[in-house]
Amino acid sequence: MTRRLLYLVTEDWYFWSHRLPQARAARDAGFEVLVATRIADHGARIADEGFRVLPLPWRREGGLIGQIPVIAELVRLYRRERPDIVHHVALKPVAFGALAARIAGVPAVVNAITGFGFLATSASLKARLLRTAIGLVLPPLTNRARARMILQNDDDLALALARGLTCRDRAVVIRGSGVDLTHFAALPEPAQGPVTIAIVSRMLRIKGIDTLVDAVRLLRTRGLDVRLLLAGGPDPANPASFTEATLKSWAAEPGIDWLGPVEDVRTVWAQAHIAVLASRGGEGVPKSLLEAAACGRAIVATDVPGCRDVTGREGEAGFLVPPDDPAAMAEALARLAQDAGLRHRLAATARQRAETLFGAESIGRETVA
């Protein structure tokens, strides 16, 4: 009898970009794969892979009370589809899905934490209350015999253990979602124009976009001819998003271009000499850095969990700088901008690390195992 695996993901685009290799590996291992998610632009593509798509009306507002209908729908869905395993992806699906799975009597649960986001970094009252609530509510749902937890870096594993979300023999670290090494092939550097620095990310405060803009301003003040590409859109439903007006004002400055959302990010890395992420923390393993590494780009990132998993040791595939430090960010970028030989050595190592550690096929097999 074919075993049934159900993925629970908030957005169809996220499943497509971050869970497709794992789902393909599960399909190839003999599972019937179902995907419960909010449908926007990727539902047909997911279905074309042979996965059954189950539309789910996730709500981004309304707090816990506003999510009760979603949890109730999850219970009904789990009871109707009777999956052998549910795989919850990211913190919100883990929280609500684990509760629904317990009520519905799902035999086995995989809870995949893809980074703790602002909960790992913020000292706000909201973050403190949520951390307390998670520590009280989630352990009975996620730390049980038929549940396993996947974390993307060692720091997140330590946090999950400290909060009682799992225990050591029920948890595994799998470093990221993987990268398609054929699709993201090594690219030559641009032959002409200024040294170009690129970030591919949602335009959120936690990603440190403002720090990066300040760093590039410093570089240009010093007379370095550098260009910054901001690839990604704002998220109006997220209070920590930069507004479109702010992004347009930055793009009006010399040396800064805002590209908006980019469907094929290889076009961004083809224009860039250096990949950057100025994250303030809360990452799993940033997929944008994995894709940049696969394309053969030297990296400058902040010294936070997840980012350092991609760069390796200092000066191996890139440089690490403290968060919220435009001067340190500018200095690291300047080193790479002014030394093509160093940049090329780090870029070659970045590609090698992508091939050795982060290939999508190997990550997919590891997840299914």
Protein described:
The chain has 369 residues and is of the alpha/beta class. It folds into 2 domains: 183 residues, Rossmann fold (3-Layer(aba) Sandwich); 163 residues, Glycogen Phosphorylase B (Rossmann fold, 3-Layer(aba) Sandwich). The chain is 44% helix and 18% strand. The protein is built from 16 helices and 13 strands. Helix 5 links the parallel strand 4 and strand 5. Helix 2 packs across helix 16, helix 4 crosses helix 5 and helix 9 crosses helix 14. The two termini are 19 Å apart.
Topology overview:
Blueprint: E1 4-11, H1 12-18, H2 20-28, E2 32-38, H3 43-48, E3 52-55, H4 63-81, E4 85-89, H5 91-104, E5 108-112, H6 125-137, H7 139-142, E6 147-151, H8 154-162, E7 171-173, E8 195-200, H9 209-221, E9 226-231, H10 244-251, E10 256-260, H11 266-271, E11 274-277, H12 287-294, E12 298-302, H13 307-311, E13 318-321, H14 326-338, H15 340-357, H16 360-368
Parallel strand pairs: 1-2, 1-4, 2-3, 4-5, 5-6, 6-7, 8-9, 8-11, 9-10, 11-12, 12-13
In CATH, the homologous superfamily of the largest domain goes by the name Glycogen Phosphorylase B
Q: Can you tell me the CATH architecture of the largest domain? A: 3-Layer(aba) Sandwich
- State the distance separating the first and last CA atoms: 19 Å
Strand order of the largest sheet: 3-2-1-4-5-6-7
Shape: globular
Amount of beta strand: 15-25%
Structural class: alpha/beta
- Average pLDDT confidence is 94
The overall strand count is: 13
Q: Class of the largest domain, according to the CATH hierarchy?
A: Alpha Beta
> How many domains comprise the coordinates?
2
* Main sheet record: 7 strands, parallel
